[in-house]
Specification:
This protein is mostly helical and 297 residues long. It has 12 helices and no strands. The protein has a single domain, classed as Ferritin (Up-down Bundle), CATH 1.20.1260.
Length: 297
């Protein structure tokens, strides 16, 4: 199903990380590491989005939707490259070890959620069902990224604290494009026959996995910071979750409870991703984003 929204615009952006400090929010090492984990968490998943959607293209019978899916893939591929570039040119430049994290995500998307899950070869109807299941997983993730995109576009506390403008632009450019293309994955899921009841187990799978990977990865970054050495950060330690809640109360991070609450609309039988964000608000940022303006020029 195609919607009456402006055509998606893939933007070939680039970022200069030479002046970005590791503590990109001054005085907030926990929040800085926590958000920096996004650079490690996203590339493997977004390249996986593109592979799955590429397999779905021959099954799309709506020309407008096919065009949106192709533009979505180009945007997601650029997101993955931009965050991978931040890992290589920014985090590695500061001596951060990242392979432990990225290896876990690669295994998740290549083996568990790959074309041959756990080595099993699927053909015919099971292969089609596996494809639709994975498109549904992407639709559930895209709802979460839209929610985070709204948060990032609207957050002004980071600016007031003097946060690094390059990393802010990366986050907001990405967040704005997530809002811009928020309908595509859900429309494709329904176009391929995805139904309402399955949204329950899809969201139930996605939410804890994303939360767990995010906190696990952030803990790995903090283990490399001497200021957190005595805390022994880990996804299994209450300290990590308590600090997330504390920093959310102080306005530095989105609250996990707020995120869960915002996820509930995905369970609504009348869920419509068009209602989850403002295309005008997203485009307003994209029309002033330094990286997007440079790409357009």
């Amino acid at each position: 199903m195609s919607r009456f929204l402006p055509p998606l615009v893939p933007r070939k952006v680039a970022f200069d990380w030479s002046d970005t400090p590791l503590e990109w929010i001054p005085g907030q090492p926990f929040a800085s590491h926590f958000i920096n984990e996004i650079n490690l968490l996203l590339p493997a998943g977004e390249f996986w989005f593109c592979r799955v959607f590429n397999q779905a293209l021959p099954l799309i019978t709506d020309d407008a939707l096919r065009s949106e899916v192709k533009a979505f893939m180009r945007q997601e591929s650029m997101h993955a490259r931009a965050h991978a570039g931040a890992t290589e040119s920014y985090l590695h430049a500061h001596g951060i070890e990242t392979e432990s994290n990225t290896r876990l995500e690669d295994q998740l998307f290549e083996k568990l959620l790959g074309d041959q899950p756990m080595g099993f070869t699927l053909k015919g109807r099971p292969a089609r069902q596996w494809l639709v299941f994975r498109v549904g997983i992407i639709a559930a993730i895209e709802h979460m990224t839209c929610v985070l995109g709204n948060y990032i576009i609207r957050n002004r506390q980071w600016d007031e604290a003097g946060a690094d403008p390059t990393l802010l632009d990366l986050l907001r450019w990405h967040g704005a494009e997530e809002v811009e293309h928020r309908c595509v994955a859900f429309d494709l899921y329904r176009h391929l026959g995805g139904g309402y009841p399955s949204r329950y187990y899809l969201a139930s799978i996605v939410m804890p996995i994303i939360f767990g990977l995010w906190v696990h990865g952030a803990a790995h970054l903090m283990k490399q910071d001497p200021r957190f050495a005595d805390k022994k950060p880990s996804v299994f330690r209450p300290w990590m979750w308590g600090q997330w809640f504390k920093h959310a109360r102080d306005g530095w991070l989105p609250s996990p409870l707020w995120l869960i609450t915002k996820e509930l609309s995905f369970f609504d039988p009348w869920y419509n991703p068009e209602n989850e964000g403002s295309t005008e608000e997203a485009l307003a940022y994209l029309n002033r984003s330094p990286a997007a303006l440079a790409a357009a020029a």
